[in-house]
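Entry for the shared binder. Reason: the reviewer on the internal report wants the predicted structure included alongside the sequence.
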Amino acid sequence: MKKTLAILITSSILMLSSATVYADGQSSQVTQSIYKPGVTVTADENSPTGYTATFVYKSSDPDVQKIVLYSDTFMLWDEKAPQYTGSGSNGMNLNNVSGAYKDAYGHLPGDYKDTYWPGGGSASSKLSLELAKVPNTDVWYTQVPLMSGAFVYNYEVTKNGVTTARLDDPANPALVNTATGVRSLSSIVYVPYNAEKQGVGEYRDRSLELPRTDGRKGTIQTITYPASDGTNRGMTVYLPYGYDKNSQKPYNVLYINMGNSGDQFGNELRWMNEGALPNIADNLVAQGMEPFVAVSMNYQDWGHSWAKIEPDVLNYVMPFVESNYNVSKDRLGRGYAGLSAGAGTTARFYLNHPDVFSQFGIWSNGVVPTAEQLAKIKEYNDSTKVHIALGKWDYVTAGIPMHEALAENGIKHEFNVIPGGHDWEFWQLMFAEFAKDHLWKDTGDVWPNENAMPGKVNAASSAGTTANNTPVDVTTTQANVAVDAGVKAAKEAGLTSATVSLTRPGNVTLDTLRAMMARTGMPLNIHADTLSSNGKTVDAYITFDPARSVKDLNLFVSPSSSVANSLRAQFGRLFTNNLMVVSFGQEGEFGQLMEVAVKTDKKMNAGNAIVYSYNRENNTYAKMNTTVRIDDSGYIHFKTRVGGDIIISDGDLTNQ
């Protein structure tokens, strides 16, 4: 492992500059105004990952002598390192990595290459970085280049010769169970993905772990429940965006456990904090996955005893959740997952209660089934999904013999081994993979009428996108959630029409529009989320009555397009107007007057804005008889009956 750490300090009370941890003395050239306390992630062309995280700790205590940032997942490990199989010293074990393996395969964050993987899980694999103090201030700081994803970190503070460790960031605190006062262990820093610098290999883009910034976020409830031991025990519940306690269709529910974390209590918080479960679920739901509820409990103080956990889950946890939340009471709508000791619990629920749950995520542990258990799970093989995985350098290898036993007996399951250790970087990836590829998918079930809506909203290339702009379908469930949320908001505000937000819908069929209308019982305002084209951002809102529609709705908005380019070519240098093109996928009339509101970064002149219809075949355009107005927010409003291409210009094209 390269040993050189450069911490360059050229700072003052006004400016932080290049106080960065890199290998070989290669410091970032990023210069930032002094940061607020906590962690700030900045795009940085000089960073090997494209991003630099600046950690700032403020302490006015004159007795503080040293502050150290540390994480057991900042270190990088070459994917060429041999797999650990549990047999003696065979392979690299990140839970107790040897000096020889660390020298051969370990790298500092500044050494990043797209064949390196983050990981650790123990003191022997953690990276500690002493913060520099800005002279004559109370600011301590350092900078670290990090790859895409969610990373745990902590501080240790030395005061009067006494060091206190395992401190979360006071400016970026860990999740707290407000019902018990117990705090999770670590703070989290979120880093975006840079494909050019981080590569495009599998698992490189970890944008699913980042929190959403558009408000489409679920909620986390920290509570207690009456447990089998007669006490009130901690519980966390994730409710998806748009959760409706009165929905006719109950939500699928995933029960999920942590392993051993070193603290007797607060274990129920880890998945919702360090595991980034809410962020991953929020992003998948926004991409079209059916929303689900997740519930986590603490079993560490019970030593993860199956004899205690089994009756608690079946007779106390599930009845409590099913009584207080709108969740499924059917095995097809229930799942169980866990990591480490929690994966051992999950494996036992799979082998003993396949009649209670149908989805299982078993990561960094496993249990070899008995003959009796094999016979039982075979009965449910066709309707059960099982995902078993472990890190390549994970010291718990029990998932391997479990996988082999299931494979030998023809039991359907997924098995995966990827570079990683017994740590959150690996578990975050596996939960995301499990949720994305194996958990419940849109079944086509439609409420309230199963014949009312097709299984998918027919999304075209302008459909919802992931972080790398890959088109994603909008599912029936997502459309239903959006409709229900819009109606709820409208009723609470005393309105007679509802605004419904779909994630970048492309073509929405007429049948779907009518079904959405039937579901609401009131007129709809369809809000198409932000659309992007050619690096520009455009917001579009369309108001319509599905009951009067005669065509599908297919919307795409662009601040520049082949239409605009054609006009520029036609008029050459004389053409100076700002243009925007609104493209409907259908020609002809919609059967009603539809109101369109569009916002772009084009600086349209309110007094000169004119709307034209455009004919691509003969490259002609005609002024539309519609009133144009621009509101205080910069939205351009007009009404139209026709589809096809519509040009908005801030000047009269016929006079060019």
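Summary line for the report: Residues 306-324 form the longest helix (19 residues).
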